[in-house]
Amino acid sequence: MTNAIEPASYRQFAAKKDIGPDLDAIFFEASNTKTFGSAVERATFRYRWLGRYLEHDPGYAHLAVNPSGDIVGYVVGALDDPARTPRFADIGYFATFRHLTDRYPAHLHVNVAPRFRNRGVGADLIRLFIADARRAGSRGVHVVTGAGARNIPFYNGLGFAEAGRTGEGAGEVVFLARSL
């Protein structure tokens, strides 16, 4: 990794100390959703976009750690086709993108603490996930993001290209894909 930031396996790092609060701080800061009607809604949101990956696919979770041992970023993901895997049935756009998830089944979520962004940390984390997916024999990887999101050029720079769109207005999302 770059700037003295080192990669760490989620499994190994989490076995040493409770890292939940550190991951949550990065996760919720990066989220577009900032307020929740209840603690249950907040926990459900966290599980949907982070927790289920840590629970079911911890081997594909990687951390970026600074020299002080602080987590400054993470990538989580799964190799299962989300349109055909029941645990992702709560995310409606996967059914719409079913024709694409067959070719690009692996998917990821990456977040980096604000003061460590634009240093290559996120790109390095994605490269780790892609290497895992490639070793496991995945045909392709995708991310889904808002149609107007500022992260689209970032993903384009890592070889992801738009393969589909769905939704309208503020709810429009883009399926960005990369063959492996």
Descriptive notes:
- The mean pLDDT is 95.
- The chain has 180 residues and is an alpha+beta fold.
- The protein is 36% helix and 24% strand.
- The protein has a seven-stranded mixed β-sheet with strand order 1-2-3-4-5-7-6, with helices on both faces.
- The protein has one domain (6-179): Aminopeptidase.
- The two termini are 21 Å apart.
- The longest helix has 18 residues, at 39-56.
- The radius of gyration is 16 Å and the shape is globular.
Secondary-structure topology with pairs:
Layout: E1 6-9, H1 10-16, H2 20-30, H3 39-56, E2 62-65, E3 71-78, H4 93-96, H5 98-101, E4 106-112, H6 121-135, E5 140-146, H7 152-157, E6 161-166, E7 173-179
List key phrases describing it.
single chain; Aminopeptidase; 7-stranded mixed β-sheet; globular
The strands making up the biggest β-sheet line up spatially as 1-2-3-4-5-7-6
Chain oligomer state: single chain
Helix coverage percent: 25-40%
The gross shape turns out to be globular
Give the end-to-end Cα distance, rounded to a whole number of Å. Answer: 21 Å
Poorly predicted runs are none
The overall pLDDT average reads 95
- Helices, by number, come to 7
- The gyration radius over C-alpha positions equals 16 Å
Q: What are the secondary-structure elements, in order, as H or E?
A: EHHHEEHHEHEHEE
Give the count of structural domains.
Answer: 1
Count every beta strand, where a strand is a DSSP E run of 2 or more residues.
7
| Main sheet record | 7 strands, mixed
